[in-house]
Amino acid sequence: MPTPLSWLEVDGRALACNLRKFRARLDAHTRLMAVVKADAYGHGMAPVARVALGAGADWLGVFNLAEALALRAAGLQAPILVLGYVPLADLGEAAAQGVRVTASSLETLEAGAAAARAAGQPLHLHLKLETGTQRLGLDGEPLARALALLREHPELHLEGAHTHFANIEDTTEHDFARGQLGRFQALLAEVRAAGFPVELPHTACTAAAILFPQTHFALARVGIGLYGLWPSKETFLSALAQGQDALRLSPALSWKTRVAQVKLVPSGAYVGYGCTYRCTRPTRLAILPVGYANGYDRRLSNQGHVLVRGARAPIRGRVCMNLCMVDVTDVPEVRLEDEVVLLGAQGDERISAEQLAGWAGTINYEVIARADPHAPRVLLGGEGG
Ligand SMILES: *Cc1c(COP(=O)(O)O)cnc(C)c1O
Fold first, then answer.
1. What is the reported pLDDT for 24?
2. 128 lines ligand 1 (CB under 6 A)
3. Catalytic member of 128, 256, 263, 273
4. Residue 37: active-site member
5. Second label for 76, Cα 20 to 30 Å away, from 7, 244, 280, 323?
6. What pLDDT sits at residue 244?
7. Tens digits of residue pLDDT in 224-273
8. Ligand 1 centre and the CA of 176: distance in Å?
């Protein structure tokens, strides 16, 4: 195997520690789902799932059936819920593997009943209830028809009902979320009145799990917090405003590369495509083998910093497809193949996902979920990893 040009390091102890902090916030009867969609937000799905289960997670949440089957193939037996859409043709496979499916349309119930009969296994469903996000979800007349269909088909087991908040991370005003919670409670009452006990109602993502215990119900779905990041500055401020200051999360992901060339360029030289940077002094550049095709956002051009030898080095010129250039004039010891940190800590310095997100005009979620999907992930210090 050739030496990777960039790689990600995942701190298993940080993951376990974050997960335990959420576990401690939940009542003993509330189950905890580790949300490991999008390759565990870029951290590597199966190893993260193993660490999370070892640290006390009860459920795994994924987006699609392929992710659920990959977890099963990796030997993970915990209950898995597909939070996204399962094509009608794949419902039999879900039933056969005991994977729980989110249902948000009548067609899923009809095809699911036929698939469960053919598989000779019940299909466990979680109804997605529409409470105001206007994404996947059912309410009103279609919900009433769904309940009628469920009554006709005992091979469908309605295990859960859930919803997802639209406006909990982006604000310190949570009226919209409270409205959604109220609608969820009303819809859940309607489902229960139709004769379904619904063992597992669930609504909470990380922000809700931190801010609103009344959203926890039987299961909390924790994604970003497991990875040691806050959902947003507003969530952090809301927690502070509630008088919470005990929650310390530890970011688990670092992203690294090595210097591919060091060169001295004269004052007045232009750097990179479009000649968008011109050196104002004799400049030592380090060339790094990472670019936007590796998930290093092109909007970091002339904006971002990396860490080398414990110091910050600014990006000069545009980020290319597979390369970028940084100024190491003030870090004179830099050598070929020195380790460079794109995300994470080195010495006393740290580049956070929030800082990268600020430079690139996006959010911490996108930064970590898109960190080089082809680079190896190395799990360090993880129980079970
Ligand atoms: C991704 C996702 C979550 C996790 O959200 P975080 O903010 O990362 O905790 C929870 N629920 C659903 C439906 C999701 O899609």
1. 95
2. no
3. 273
4. yes
5. 7
6. 83
7. 999 999 999 999 999 999 988 779 999 999 999 999 999 999 999 999 99
8. 17
